[in-house]
Amino acid sequence: MSRLSVMRANALILIACCCVLAQAVKRNRDEGTSSIRASNVMGNGNISAFLTGGASYSTSGFVLSPCVGASVGITDIMELSGQIVPISSRGMGPIEAHLQITTPANDKLRFFGIALIADLFLSTAQDTISKTTAKDKPEYNSYPTASVVADLDWLAFKKWLPFKTYLKLSMSDNPDVLYRYDQLAMLSAIEWKLFQHSLFCGIGTAMYKEKPTTTRSGDNGYSQRYAWIEPGARYRLFSMFSLIGSAKLTLYQDLKEKNPVKPELFNVSIRLEAPIFFRETNTEAIRTLIFMEQKKEKKQEAVASAADMSSRKNLLKDISGLGLDAEADSLGSFDFSQERQDLVKRREDTQKKMAEIEKLFIELNKEDSVKAFRNEYTAPPMTQPDSGKTK
């Protein structure tokens, strides 16, 4: 058996095992959109490791970048996470570390959540223009930033509102150019979070301020800005793997003429998230139970509606069997106006007959009265008296 055949067989076995073992939907508690993560954290003692494979195409070309990451819950409201892009089509990718602290009730399906995140980016872009960098010896510096994430999970407020809204304020928009620009970004998104899959749409704006370099004095303020929109979707495979795709389109840009920022006018990206080690958390378990309860209620309503329709049809069949002018399946063909006219006509005929009968009764009563009067006031016939003769 060739090596390619062995690899294919192993892949089929792996997929089959995933199909057998995947019985319920599994999500990370901090699962969000392609650009914003939720305010929740993993929770004390929970560990998650993952692999992602991503590809994007933009005005700057095609980029393929696999990623390895992990998250660990330090306390109930604190999480430490990090990820690294070991290699990409542009070379070694950046390394990121995040310390996230959220508000209480983290392990519940809460309506409002907010988190403060301390970010650390180790840039892998060559820095040869900073004042502290020699041109013949590039540096790879680390850049600490901060961000705030707030979200509203409407499913916790109303069970028929499976929407989640996000707001993020950050000091980094593109970590690859942090050595050249100070950055401020504001992002918002709405997510239609279904039982397994989800649809989302994000919108954001970013402002850039050029740092002083060996050849330039830098900007006095955040004089460059642009805005974009990013619709996308999350499609879940085998309950826990996620395929995330999005299309980012620049809507507005205000850039300076000399040494401007080069935002990507469009960017189409897709990535696959595959958890290596996963532990279910109460928040997403509650979400799954709510969707299962709604599915059960809809099924019960459908069964009750079908039973009610069947009973109506049986009743109509019984009415038709009695010889009435009604159809068995529908009352739409019954002419109510014609039936009303027939009733009015029958009523008029009945009233005419009753009037005739009443007239006969009156005439009969008159004849009886005349006869009684004659009998009462007419004298009996005269009889001849006895002559008194005796024999």
Please give a structural write-up:
The protein is an alpha+beta fold. 26% of the residues lie in helices and 36% in strands. It has three helices and twelve strands; from the N terminus they run H-E-E-E-E-E-E-E-E-E-E-E-E-H-H. Strands 1-2-3-4-5-6-7-8-9-10-11-12 form a twelve-stranded antiparallel beta barrel.
The percent range for helix content is 25-40%
Instruction: Calculate the mean pLDDT score and round it.
Output: 80
Number of strands: 12
| CATH topology heading of the largest domain | Porin
The geometry reads as elongated
* CATH hierarchy, class of the largest domain: Mainly Beta
Secondary-structure element order, N to C: HEEEEEEEEEEEEHH
N-to-C terminal Cα separation, in Å?
167 Å
Low-confidence stretches: 12-23, 324-332, 387-391
Estimated structural class: alpha+beta
Proper CATH architecture of the largest domain: Beta Barrel
Radius of gyration: 44 Å
Work out the strand percent: 35-45%
| Tally of alpha and pi helices | 3
Write a short abstract of this structure.
It is built from 3 helices and 12 strands; from the N terminus they run αββββββββββββαα.
Strands, helices and their partners?
Blueprint: H1 3-21, E1 47-58, E2 61-75, E3 78-84, E4 95-102, E5 112-122, E6 142-153, E7 163-170, E8 181-193, E9 198-210, E10 224-237, E11 241-254, E12 266-277, H2 282-321, H3 336-377
Antiparallel strand pairs: 1-2, 1-12, 2-3, 3-4, 4-5, 5-6, 6-7, 7-8, 8-9, 9-10, 10-11, 11-12
